[in-house]
Design goal:
Largest sheet: 8 strands, mixed
CATH superfamily: Vaccinia Virus protein VP39
Shape: globular
Distance between the termini: 32 Å
Protein name: Carboxy-S-adenosyl-L-methionine synthase
EC number: 2.1.3.-
CATH topology: Rossmann fold
CATH architecture: 3-Layer(aba) Sandwich
Pfam families: Methyltransf_25
InterPro entries: CmoA, Methyltransf_25, SAM-dependent_MTases_sf
Number of helices: 8
Subunit structure: Homodimer.
Radius of gyration: 18 Å
Number of domains: 1
Order of helices and strands: HHEHEHEEHEHHEHEE
CATH class: Alpha Beta
Strand content: 15-25%
Structural class: alpha/beta
């Protein structure tokens, strides 16, 4: 990404009111309207998000290797990208942020330019299923895989594992499904209470759930772990969980 002449002001951030009034039951899309309210939306919708982002910096600092590539796949506005940027201590590392939403990439470019870290970041507006991956030490899928069709997830994770150097990692954050119906209902209720505590109305919660459930397909923690092992990672561990949101670390042993 070429350095802009002037970073200017940060892009406008609005309060998420996208589902505050009755609307047609359209599928959820990462378009310009979502990009504009995304920081507020994800902070108020994903418990633990404000903890996960700074910990991505800590994990990157631990696992980034000299002369390697680091990837944020599904980078949206670049929160994980910036965390990785600040966690990389090697000047010969290359950092890539990839997202298929042009609206997200456009705003991400602005946030990257405003950040005071001098490390170059290459942003790609393309499908992560087709982006080139190689020589990776740290890759992040931060609440991204859940939007990939289930039948395409194994191939993506296998490509990531094959591209990962010995000692490298994948940080995978996901909303999960529970095997027990009782636990699923309890965790869902707690998640909705979290949203209410952050100012969302029952109408907003209901309408967003209807819109997103057709494009966000959660799976069990056991399914995620087995797929990561099958893809070629050697160890998989949960390092964070809050209600039905988890973040895992998949490690490629040396």
């Amino acid at each position: 990404m070429s350095k802009p002449k002037s970073p200017g002001k940060p892009p406008e951030q609005a309060t998420d009111r996208l589902f505050a009034t009755e609307r047609r039951p359209d599928d959820f899309r990462f378009d310009a309207s979502v990009a504009r309210v995304f920081p507020d939306m994800i902070r108020r919708s994903v418990p633990g998000y404000t903890t996960i982002i700074p910990m991505i910096e800590v994990i990157t600092e631990q696992y980034a290797q000299a002369g390697s590539n680091c990837y944020d796949l599904g980078c949206s506005l670049g929160a994980s990208t910036l965390a990785m940027r600040h966690g990389i201590s090697y000047p010969d590392c290359s950092l890539f942020g990839v997202d298929n939403s042009s609206a997200m990439i456009e705003r991400c470019e602005h946030y990257i330019a405003l950040d005071d870290n001098p490390m170059p970041v290459t942003l790609r507006c393309e499908d992560i299923l087709h982006t080139e991956l190689s020589n990776a030490s740290v890759t992040t899928l931060n609440f991204t895989l859940q939007f990939i069709a289930p039948e395409e997830r194994s191939a993506l994770l296998t490509r990531i594992a094959r591209a990962t150097r010995p000692g490298g990692v994948l940080i995978l954050s996901e909303k999960i499904q529970f095997e027990s119906e009782r636990e699923q209902n309890t965790q869902t209720r707690l998640h909705h209470d979290f949203k209410r505590a952050n100012g969302y109305s029952d109408l907003e919660i209901s309408q967003k759930r209807s819109a997103i459930e057709r494009v966000l397909i959660p799976e069990t923690l056991a399914a995620h772990k087995q797929r990561l092992l099958d893809a070629g990672f050697d160890d998989v561990m949960v390092w964070y969980q809050c209600f039905n949101f988890v973040s895992m670390l998949a490690i490629k042993n040396g």
